[in-house]
Amino acid sequence: MGSARIAGVGLTRFGSHPERTGRELFARAAAEAMEDAGVPRSDVETLNYGNYMGSIAENQGHQAPLMAEAAGVSCPATRYEEACASAGVAVREAVRAVRAGDVDVAIAGGMERMSHLETDAVTAGLATAADDLLEVKAGMTFPGAYALMARSYFETYGGTRRDLAHIASKNHENAVPNEYAQYRNRVSVDRALESPTVASPLHLFDACPITDGASAVVFVSERYADSEDVDAPVAVTGSGQGTDRMVLADREFLARTPAATRAAESAYGEAGIGPEDVDVAEVHDCFTIAEVLAIESLGFAPNGEGIAAAREGLTTADGDLPVNLSGGLKAKGHPVGATGGSQIVEVTRLLRGDHPNAEHVPDADVGVAHNAGGSVASAVVHVLEVVA
Amino acid sequence: MGSARIAGVGLTRFGSHPERTGRELFARAAAEAMEDAGVPRSDVETLNYGNYMGSIAENQGHQAPLMAEAAGVSCPATRYEEACASAGVAVREAVRAVRAGDVDVAIAGGMERMSHLETDAVTAGLATAADDLLEVKAGMTFPGAYALMARSYFETYGGTRRDLAHIASKNHENAVPNEYAQYRNRVSVDRALESPTVASPLHLFDACPITDGASAVVFVSERYADSEDVDAPVAVTGSGQGTDRMVLADREFLARTPAATRAAESAYGEAGIGPEDVDVAEVHDCFTIAEVLAIESLGFAPNGEGIAAAREGLTTADGDLPVNLSGGLKAKGHPVGATGGSQIVEVTRLLRGDHPNAEHVPDADVGVAHNAGGSVASAVVHVLEVVA
Question: Is the Cβ pair B61, A81 closer than 8 Å?
């Protein structure tokens, strides 16, 4: 099976854009990606678009045709929704379509706009990604869900709030040079520890912010890259997706995320690599504990040992395996339906060497992106490699 | 490229199921499809699920993992949203995954639940499939949109409300023997004409009802069908998708649906057939005028001549090309996110000969399904053929 080459990537600045419509945000990301790719819009054969809660936040469903128009393309366009992994599945299907030879050029990405809503409305909107009958009606929201996962982890393996604060501090440090990031301020471990409680043991600085933004990636087939002389040095060589029980109470063990483990195994298998081959990773740190569970599911640390990774320096910018050099969801921000695409953008730039933090991984040629939905009832993992 | 064989199909009865949850509805359709297929659940490798407005109607997004659980499968599961064509794109991606060799067994379908809401809330929910900024805020809802399309058609080509009433009457007649249909009562042309105005020139009996329901289709690869000795006599041999400008005011001509024309051309091209080869069709008659536009876009009648098809008998049960032998959206019902899957179910049964209306098409071996989103800003067309 051929690989899907990445010809261009684009983002909006992540943050608060209450004055801009969703289609303006996606148009900007798509335009940046098309400009980066240098591919004519008339060659684009499919648009795969991720969005989570536009029908709630903007009274707008059926966004795919609108976004095709915003991107200036007239091909088939489809919206994917998988909670916070919406753009991850959109990317995955674009990769599959290119590899299968169905299309030569695809755009995939996503958009979310939430900052114009009251915080309570955002929390309620995001909570629709949990089970309404069995969790939400009982009062569950995502800070609570991840707090339960953190408690289970602490009780099973040990670990402290200070360990989690190291993750927050690391990701804020990484965001400082990232012009697309929502928060480019440093946060010390002590400041993170002192932030107010959200859902014990998680505090404010354990959580990602409310973010507007968009992402776009242009994929091309090997055939197209060769025949059109497109500069596309990075390829997606592996893609995996996993699903788990939605309801936390139905899971065997709250301190693991098997959907992500399955997605990683599939992605590694396709790429013919293992976790030991990975040089850099973007993972779905919607809460600091989620980064711990992610790096364990990806095989970067044994179960129970991911908690110490940031503190011990494994995953810091100068560590053996830098994680979330973008700043992660924690500091770069988390426009839900765009996040899976933005991770691909960040890893691509790190591998191409045109990322502001690329200096930390000068020899990187294998990267991983890990995107999760809800309390990881769904997960998508992609392997990216330098191939040209 | 191999074809995707249809091993099993399932539906709930369409209608009003306020006492049943969405997951119960989908579980039932999926169970019927799996039973029909005779394939073990452990062999299912992907679940592609269509839903339009669950986050509004049931406060439930991220439905794909829930539906995987309801269907008793533990594979990757993805939700597709393309307004009323949500299940159409879910089916299309399942077909592509099977044909590409990515998976051997896939379930695709969808679910919608709306009847527990007030009619105003349903109308407002459905209106999120139009452009919120440029149409909905100006008062546009879908009866109004299709009324404009009907007016444009009448002014350009001629045609009368009586012609449209023939379509309503035909589809109600077809629904009488269909045990899955919401309305199994006959409606005369005169009664349809006398129904109250909804948006002139469209009256109540020009419109589809508010419906709950679910659909599921089990696809298998040729390799799997052969090696596992699965009875799967019908295959999807062509799949096409088209996109158009969302806003009616931006279109050149309101009396045509070019997204459907493009989808049909792609599907026919893949299947290596033309409209003259089609024996039976299910088309997206959310309003009677939509059936006219569909059969013209599918090439069954020249532009301007589709309006007379039902009156002249071309598309009636005993005509040369029966359309909507299921009863169509008009009488069988339109559970938005399930409809594209249910059309595949109906065409499959007509081609296999186990449909209550199969006697009208005893020699049929080519069928078409046409699923549209919103005012046909998106459209999906599938060609099904008897191959074994």
Answer: yes
Strand A366-373 versus strand A378-386 pairing type: antiparallel
Q: Is B328 left (phi over 0), alpha (psi -120 to 50) or beta?
A: left
With CA atoms as reference, the chain A residue closest to B100 would be: A100
Contact yes or no for B297/B339 (Cβ under 8 A): no
Nearest-angstrom CA–CA distance, B374 and B126: 8
Q: Distance from B299 to chain A by nearest Cα, in Å?
A: 20
Please enumerate, as own/partner, the contacts of A184-189 that have beta carbons within 8 Å and a separation of 24 or more. A184/A327, A184/A331, A187/A331, A189/A162, A189/A165
A55 contact residues in B (CB cutoff 8 A): 53, 55-56, 125, 128
Q: Find residue B379's DSSP bridge partners.
A: B242, B372
Q: Residue B61: which of A58, A59, A83 has the nearest Cβ?
A: A83
Scanning the structure block, which residue is given the tokens 């709950």? B212
Which residues in B lie closer than 8 A to residue A53 (C-beta atoms)?
Answer: 55, 61
Q: Which residues of A touch B241 (CB under 8 A)?
A: 76, 78
Phi and psi for A209 in degrees, rounded to 5? -85, 180
In chain B, the residue whose alpha carbon lies closest to the alpha carbon of A374 is B62
Tell me the chain A residues in contact with residue B76 when contact means C-beta distances shorter than 8 Å.
241-243, 263, 378
Gap between the Cα atoms of B167 and B126, Å rounded: 23
Q: Cα–Cα distance between B209 and B331 in angstroms, integer?
A: 8
Chain B residue closest in CA terms to A72: B245
Contacts across the A-B interface (CB distance below 8 Å): 147
Alpha-helical (H) ranges within chain B are: 22-37, 54-57, 63-71, 86-99, 119-127, 142-157, 161-175, 189-194, 222-227, 258-271, 288-297, 309-312, 328-332, 339-352
State whether A55 and B53 contact (CB < 8 Å). Answer: yes
- ipTM rounded to 2 decimals: 0.96
* Alpha carbon distances (Å) from A369 to A159, A243, A361: 25, 17, 16
Which chain B residues are Cβ-neighbours of A82 within 8 angstroms?
62, 64, 78-79
Q: Please report the DSSP string for B251-308 in residue order.
A: SS-TT--HHHHHHHHHHHHHHT--GGG--EEE---SBHHHHHHHHHHTTSS-TTTGGG
Task: Give me the residue from B21, B93, B263 closest to A93, CB to CB.
Answer: B93
Q: Which two tokens stand for residue B170?
A: 């035909």
For chain A, helix, strand, coil in percent to 5 are: 45, 20, 40
- Report, as residue numbers or ranges, the catalytic residues of A: 84, 334
Q: β-strand B4-11 against A46-50: which pairing, if any? A: unpaired
Residues of B annotated as catalytic (active site), given as ranges: 84, 334
What is the CATH topology of the domain spanning A4-117+209-386? Peroxisomal Thiolase; Chain A, domain 1 (3.40.47)
pLDDT for B174-196, tens place per residue? Answer: 999 999 999 999 999 999 999 99
The residue ranges of every structural domain in chain B are: 4-117+209-386
Q: Name the residue of chain A whose CA is nearest to B137's CA.
A: A59
Which tens digit of pLDDT belongs to each residue from B340-357?
999 999 999 999 999 999
Query: Is pLDDT at A2 greater than 80 in this prediction?
Result: no
Give how far B59 is from chain A: nearest CA, Å: 6
Banded model confidence at residue B1, pLDDT cuts 50, 70, 90:
low
DSSP lists the bridge partners of residue B82 as B84
For range B103-124, the mean pLDDT: 96
pLDDT in tens, B70-88: 999 999 999 999 999 999 9
Residue type, B329: L
